[in-house]
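Sequence, C-alpha cells reproduced for absentees:
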Amino acid sequence: MSDDSVVVNHVGQCVADLDRATAFYVELLGFTVDRRLSVPDEGAGPLLGVAPPVGLTAVYLLRGDFQLELLAYDRPGNPPYRRREMNEPGLTHLSFSVDDLDATVDRVATLGGEVVSRLPMAAMVRDPDGQLLELLPMAYRRQVDADRAARQAATS
C-alpha cells in the first residue's frame, strides 16, 4: 500500500448543542469553522443507521491539518450521554498540545467543560458533551517531532 493510498479525512463527534460545542473548540483550542452542512435524511439515515427523522447538522472544524466533525441530531429519541471509562474499548480521547497549559485549563469550565485531572505537565478535561481531551504543553509535541526526525535520519 502506497503512502497516499489512505488519508484521514476527519474525526466525528456527536454533540447535544452544536453552537456550544463549536464555541468550546474555537475559543479554547483555536479551531476555525470550515463549513456547516445540513445532511438530508435520505442519505444520512441509511448510512448512519439512524431512523428518520435524522435531522443531522454537521460543523467541520479545522486546526492545522486536523479536521473535527461535530454532529448534532435534531430529533426526538437521541440516547442520553453516558460517561465512558478510559479503559473501555473504543476511542478514548483526543490529545492537544497547547502553548500555555495553565491558561488553557483555566478556561475549560468557563466554556462549559470540566477539568477531570491536573498534573504539572498534563491535564485531562471533558468538553461540554463529556468527550475526554488530553492537554499537553507544546514542549511535548516539539520533543515528539524531534524524536521522530532523529529516527528518520537514523534509518536514511
